[in-house]
Amino acid sequence: MVALSRSGKVDTDRITIQRDRTALRRLSCSKPLARALTDGIITKGTAVFDYGCGYGADLRYLRSRRIRADGWDPYHRPRQKVVQADVVNLIYVLNVIENPTERDETLARAFALAKRVLIVAVRIESALDGAEEFADGVVTCRGTFQRIYTQGE
């Protein structure tokens, strides 16, 4: 829940991060997945697991190309099994976790699932209009957290 102060700004003392609101509804695959396909990291013989798959757009895209893909998301696909795969996608997940320790644990869990490759993508160097500083990132007007990374990170 987002609380606004009298000035209309986000009151970070009274905020509950709305992680379930960070998933995007896409009609095609994400840019990192498209790059992995173009670079040959993911092929028809590759098993893919999308860790934090949101609404599952990347899963649908891979399956439409007859690539074996499974995914789990704590809000949108919580009953799916978390399994090992040749390639594990951890795309736009770390940047929405407001707790640095949980971020580290999530990265370690995803890495442990990857038999061959872990693909990690985060939001980088892109300011968000109307966002307020919170922990080591910002909280948006929708109540979501974003950790904006630099390219070097």
Verbal overview:
The radius of gyration is 16 Å and the shape is globular. It has 153 residues and is of the alpha/beta class. Strands 2-1-3-4 form a four-stranded parallel beta sheet, sandwiched between helices. A three-stranded antiparallel beta sheet has the order 5-6-7, with no helix packed on it. The protein has helices spanning 31-38, 57-64, 100-113, and strands at 48-51, 69-72, 85-91, 114-121, 132-134, 137-139, 145-146. It is 20% helix and 20% strand. It is built from three helices and seven strands, in the order αβαββαββββ. The model is unreliable at 1-10 (pLDDT under 50). The longest helix has 14 residues, at 100-113.
Percent strand = 15-25%
Provide the helix percentage.
10-25%
Number of DSSP-assigned strands: 7
Mean pLDDT: 85
Structural class: alpha/beta
Number of helices: 3
